Fold this sequence. Notes:
about 160 residues, mainly beta, Elongation Factor Tu (Ef-tu), domain 3, 2 domains, 1 helix, about 5% helix, globular, YaeB-like_sf, S-adenosyl-L-methionine, YaeB-like, EC 2.1.1.-
Amino acid sequence: MKQLYVKPIGETGTDEDGMYIQLKKEYLPGLKGLEGFGAIQVIWWFSDFDKEEYRSVLECPSPYKNGPDSMGIFATRSPIRPNPVAITVSDITGIEWETGKIHLAYIDAHPGTPVLDLKPYTPSMDRIEHPQVPGWCSHWPDSVESSGDFNWEAEFNF
């Protein structure tokens, strides 16, 4: 099997202005052409859950109140996975081009989390008009924009 090599390009952070990604200096040229995109896909490492014992977990009690009692890990968004990789789509609220600081509306990663890659969000490639989901979550909002007032606490077992 081919060996994999993953090298973080930066890390997440927070400051008085909110959440951001700080790119390493050598990756600043990779920002060229990102102007005009309103959102990015952030591929990051669940570093807080990178433990050998977690990598063998393939089933778990349902994290969803209305879901089945037990679920396969690939049917959840759990940080406990064979490879602790995460993807978050976030609105870009600003870019400091000289320093490589990308301000975000939100990211569900702790400060200091390694960022592996960035990709521009493009609806023609990334949005599915009519996604199919199980009945137990079909009442969830249709988008990030419409989920702000949704009672997410009523949906999860934690």
